[in-house]
């Protein structure tokens, strides 16, 4: 879970990290354009957020807090719905969102197994 | 577009022009596959490609696909391999190829002394054809005579940021120049139906585009899985809608001129959606069991080459028409540079713009049309897959420009 520090003084409330990409103004997620390692701090919604697990290239983090059932917006369109509360800066993926059309098929395996 | 006139192609009897002059060896049932493999093994590095249909039961779609593939403008001669008792109509296929003016030979293993003598006779026939094709004349070819398909596979979170929109830019420029461009896989357009319908040439076509995606959503829902592989999720894609939005970017921003089905040849230049999801009840399983099934379907509709966007790193090529690999992910490019033609991921590292990569793709298309080998061609990738499907003919609203 990310831990949010207090709003940094003088930081605009919509400021986000340069390693993240905003694809459309109405989006509530940002996309990692570079990998972000375990425990690194990122700027999201004008706050410094320490991320728990690394966020890989092309993965999403929440641009602001997202309520359960809320649409996840990327490219300015809904790409599914949140299945639990998601904090600003938290990794947004199959563990906390789902398709509004058909379910997503994933294979359970450790990162070590997947690296082979 | 100053160098359009520099393209040259092999003129076929139907007026289309090929950018390659391939000898196709086609097995008409799995039982003839081994003989085909042994024949082409004698021509490593040569333009001899193996295609085929494994089933013994007849299938109208597969018959049409094989007819279109064997008379594709990139094909110069065809060897048909039959076991002898399969249901495939080899007589009809052979007549159609002969009527197109191409040399065609059928070898039936049961009537030809078995495996060894069929391999020997087939090898001999292919050698003769290669010698004859070596002296083939070419004629000038314009950019508007090219047909280009696009597919994405091994997608990840970068595909929709770099590779797919860059191909979209290239498609916009090709469509402006009068070329024919095809995008496909309605199962990977789920969630994009409304924005896509707004780009249709006519409101009726817009309705058909929505209906095609709706059919795909129902079809995949019946099967229980979307067009989504576990690697897509590892790469950061969470849902089919998200994958769709990225895939949709390949189509660029041109008006959509029509919908075709596999093997239908577009009537004129422009941007077309290929509906690859079978009609009727789910009978034969997944619409596209791998990326190559879609590539083969676009080739059957006449594509001279395919732009293949990959993030995770597909290494596939294709029989008959070259595949241009556009790598969306900069890390993947560094790992698999020997397999990739275009490094679109450098956009993420601020080393190029979408416009730069779009232009690079258009230039590369011209070079490949002039004979430059793509990475997958050079490496000998000649993947091919064709299985059972069933389609109804397209309705009149699908091709407003043909009316």
Features:
heterodimer; A: 116 residues; mainly beta; Archaeosine Trna-guanine Transglycosylase, Chain: A, domain 4; four-stranded antiparallel sheet; three-stranded antiparallel sheet; globular; B: 403 residues; alpha/beta; Rossmann fold; 2 domains; seven-stranded parallel sheet; 35% helix; 16% strand
What does this structure look like?
Chain B: Belongs to the UxaA family. Chain B: Residues 9-132 form the D-galactarate/Altronate dehydratase second domain. Chain B: GO terms for molecular function: hydrolase activity. Chain B: It comes from Ollibium composti. The complex is a heterodimer of chains A (116) and B (403). With 116 residues, chain A is mainly beta. Chain A has one domain: Archaeosine Trna-guanine Transglycosylase, Chain: A, domain 4 (Roll). Chain A has one helix at residues 111-115, and strands spanning 3-4, 20-21, 29-32, 41-44, 47-50, 60-62, 71-74, 77-82, 91-92, 97-98. A four-stranded antiparallel β-sheet of chain A has the order 2-3-6-9, with no helix packed on it. Chain A has a three-stranded antiparallel β-sheet with strand order 1-5-4, with no helix packed on it. In chain A, strands 7-8-10 form a three-stranded antiparallel β-sheet, with no helix packed on it. In chain A, a hairpin with a 7-residue loop joins strand 2 (20-21) and strand 3 (29-32). Chain A is globular, with a radius of gyration of 14 Å. Chain A starts with a strand and ends with a helix. Helix content of chain B is 35%, strand content 16%. Chain B contains 13 helices and 14 strands. In chain B, helix 1 (33-41) links the parallel strand 3 (22-27) and strand 4. The chains are: A mainly beta (116), B alpha/beta (403). The interface between A and B is medium-sized, with 33 and 35 residues.
């Amino acid at each position: 879970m990310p831990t949010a520090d207090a709003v940094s003084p003088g930081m605009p409330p919509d400021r986000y990290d340069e390693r993240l990409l905003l694809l459309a103004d109405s989006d509530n997620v940002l996309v990692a354009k570079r990998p972000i390692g375990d425990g690194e701090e990122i700027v999201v919604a004008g706050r410094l957020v320490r991320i728990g697990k690394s966020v890989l290239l092309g993965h999403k983090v929440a641009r602001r807090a997202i309520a359960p059932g809320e649409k996840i917006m990327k490219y300015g369109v809904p790409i599914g719905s949140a299945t639990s509360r998601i904090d600003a800066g938290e990794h947004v993926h199959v563990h906390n969102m789902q398709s509004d059309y058909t379910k997503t098929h994933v294979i359970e395996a450790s990162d070590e197994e997947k690296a082979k | 577009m100053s160098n359009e006139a520099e393209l040259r192609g092999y003129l076929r009897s139907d007026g289309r022009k090929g950018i390659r002059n391939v000898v196709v060896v086609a097995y008409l049932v799995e039982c003839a596959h081994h003989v085909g493999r042994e024949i082409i093994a004698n021509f490593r590095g040569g333009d001899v490609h193996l295609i085929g249909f494994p089933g013994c039961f007849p299938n109208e779609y597969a018959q049409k696909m094989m007819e279109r593939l064997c008379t594709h403008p990139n094909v110069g001669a065809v060897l048909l391999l039959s076991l002898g008792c399969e249901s495939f109509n080899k007589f009809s296929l052979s007549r159609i190829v002969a009527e197109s003016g191409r040399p065609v030979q059928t070898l039936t293993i049961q009537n030809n002394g078995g495996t060894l003598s069929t391999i020997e006779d087939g090898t001999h026939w292919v050698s003769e054809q290669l010698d004859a094709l070596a002296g083939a004349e070419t004629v000038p070819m314009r950019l508007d005579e090219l047909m280009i398909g696009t597919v994405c596979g091994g997608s990840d979170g970068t595909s929709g940021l770099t590779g797919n929109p860059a191909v979209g830019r290239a498609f916009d420029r090709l469509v402006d120049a009068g070329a024919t461009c095809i995008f496909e896989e309605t199962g990977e357009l789920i969630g994009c139906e409304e924005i896509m319908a707004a780009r249709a040439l006519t409101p009726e076509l817009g309705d058909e585009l929505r209906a095609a995606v709706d059919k795909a959503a129902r079809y995949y829902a019946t099967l229980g899985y979307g067009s989504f592989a576990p690697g897509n999720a590892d790469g950061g894609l969470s849902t089919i809608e998200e994958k769709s939005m990225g895939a949709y970017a390949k189509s660029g921003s041109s008006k959509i001129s029509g919908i075709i089905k596999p093997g239908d040849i577009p009537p004129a230049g422009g941007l077309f959606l290929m509906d690859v999801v079978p009609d009727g009840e789910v009978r034969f399983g997944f619409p596209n069991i791998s990326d190559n099934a879609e590539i083969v379907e676009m080739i059957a509709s006449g594509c001279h080459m395919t732009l293949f966007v990959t993030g995770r790193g597909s290494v596939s090529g294709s029989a008959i028409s070259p595949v241009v690999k556009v790598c969306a992910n900069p890390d993947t490019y560094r790992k698999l540079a020997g397999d990739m033609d275009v490094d679109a991921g450098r956009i993420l590292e601020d080393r190029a713009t979408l416009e730069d990569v779009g232009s690079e793709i258009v230039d590369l298309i011209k070079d490949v049309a002039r004979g430059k080998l793509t990475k997958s061609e050079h490496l000998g990738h000649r993947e091919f897959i064709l299985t059972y499907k069933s389609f109804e003919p397209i309705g009149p609203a699908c091709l407003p420009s043909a009316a």
